[in-house]
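cron nightly-structures :: item 1 of 1
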Amino acid sequence: MNDDPASEVQAVAQRYARRGQPDRYSMLQPDVWQTVQERQRAMLQLFAQLGLAELSQLTVLEVGCGAGGNLLELLRLGFRPEHLAGIELLPERHALARSLLPPAVTLWQGDASALTIEPGSRDIVCQHTVFSSLLDDAFQQQLAAAMWSWLRPGGGVLWYDFTVDNPRNRDVRGVPLQRVQALFPQARMWRRKLTLAPPLARWLCRIHPALYSVFNALPPLRTHVLAWLEKPV
C-alpha cells in the first residue's frame, strides 16, 4: 500500500507508457470490434432496464476518458455534449480527446481523485478498465469515494473492467466483484459478465472472426463485468 497518491498517479502513467502496440485496440481488429459491440449492446440493454429513456437529460462524467472514444459513443446514443464531461490523466490522450469531441463537452486533464466537482451533480459516473490499472488499494478507494460523492441519489456508477489477473501483464490486476462491492459498499449492484478473454479472442479471431461468438457463449471464458452501482435515494 502506498500512502502517497502522487506516486501512484506517476506509476499509472508509466504503466500506460509501457503498453505500446497502439494497433492492438484498433477497431479494425475483429476481436476489438466484437468486444466493443458486445459491450455497447449490454449497456443499451442496461439503460432500457433502468428506464433511462431520456438520455439527453442525463449528466455523465467519465473517469479516464482516454482519447474520447466512450464519450463519442454516448453522443451517438443521444446524450447531449453539454451534459458530458471527462477527465484523463495522460496529456497526449487528453489533447486527442479535445481535438475529437465537440467544444461543449467538458474535459479536464489530471488526477481524477483530486478533481473538485460539486457533490451530487452527476447522474452517471463511468469508468472503463481504469481500476484494473490501479495497483494501490488506498488509491482505488480514494478514487471510488470521489466518484461516489459526485453522484446524485438515484444515479449510478457505470463500471466496465476485468475481474481476473493477467499473468502476462504485471501492470494490471483484475478487480473481482467482491472488491467492486467493497469500493462502493452502499451501492445496489446490477452486473453482467461479458467479453471473451482478450488473449483467447485475439488468437481465435486470427483463425476466423466467427469463433468469437462461439467461444463467448461459454460464461467461464468471459473475463469482464459490466456493472451498474446505484446510489440510494
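cron nightly-structures :: done
Helices lie at 5-17, 30-50, 69-77, 91-100, 137-150, 177-183, 198-207, 211-216.
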